[in-house]
Amino acid sequence: MFGNRLDKGNKGFLQEVAMARKRLIIEMGMGVDQHGQEPTVAAARAVRNAISHNALPGVWEVALIDDPNQMIVEVKVAVPYPEQVREAEVLAVLPFGRKSLTVESGGMVVQGRAISSLNDKNDEMLVAIAAVTVLVETE
Question: Is the whole-model pTM more than 0.85?
Answer without folding.
Answer: no
